Prior knowledge:
The chain contains 5 helices and 13 strands. The relative contact order is 0.20. Strand 1 and strand 2 (about 20) form a beta hairpin. It is globular and about 50 Å long. It has one domain (about 25-50, about 80-215): Alpha/beta knot. By secondary structure, it is an alpha/beta fold. The strands form 3 sheets. The protein has a 9-stranded mixed beta sheet with strand order 8-9-7-6-3-12-10-13-11. The protein has a two-stranded antiparallel sheet with strand order 1-2. The chain is about 20% helix and about 30% strand. The longest helix has 14 residues, at about 125-140.
Amino acid sequence: MSSGKESSTKRVRNDYEEEEEGKPKKIPRTLVEKTTEKRLIVILEKASLETVKVGRKFELLNCDDHKKELSKHGRDIAAARPDISHQCLMMLLDSPLNRAGLLQVYIHTTKNVLIEINPHVRIPRTFNRFCGLMVQLLHKLSIHASDGPMKLMKVIKNPVTDHLPAGCLKIGTSYHSDTLVDVRKFAKDKPIVFVVGSNGTRQGVGHNMTVYISVLYFVC
C-alpha cells in the first residue's frame, strides 16, 4: 500500500550514475536573478581534462594510466591530474551550499574547453566512472538526463566572463599571494566568483581577477 507520501527526490539515471534531481532548491534563471541574487560561482581553472586514444578507444588522460604517452610527448606528469577535478566536483556538489541552491560551477580546461555543471548532477563516486563520463562529455559536448531534456553537463562557448554576472567580484586563489584570508569575510548578498586551480602544477589562475588571495588552511 502507498503511504500517501511521495519522495521529495526524483532520481534519474544516465550511463554512469544515478542523479538526484531537485537537490538545489532554486537555480537562478532570469537575468536579474543571475546578476543580483546571492550565490557562489566556482571556476575550476586549468583542469586536466583531455582525451587520449588508446587502441581503438578514447580514455581520459591521467598520470597513472598514461605515463608512457606523457613521457613520449615531454608532458609534465603533474599536469595530468583529472582526479583533482573529480574530488573538487564531488565536494562542491555534495555541499550544503549546493543543496541550498546557492552554487554554480564551471570548469575551464588546459585545452580551453569551458564546461557548465548543472547543480542537479551527482558526480560518479568512482574515478573510473568519472573518466568515462568526461570522455563522453568531451566528445558529445553534453550529458543529458536519461528521462528528459535536462543537460547535466555541457560544453559552452568561451570566455567564461560572458557567463558571469556583470561587475561581480572575481577572487583568484594562489599559492604565491601574500594575502592570507579567512574566506568567510567574502560572504555577501551578491554573486561572488572564486577561481581555483585544479591541477597539480601550482600554476596561476589567470590575470583578470579583482583580487588574489591565499586561503587559510584551518577555519574555525
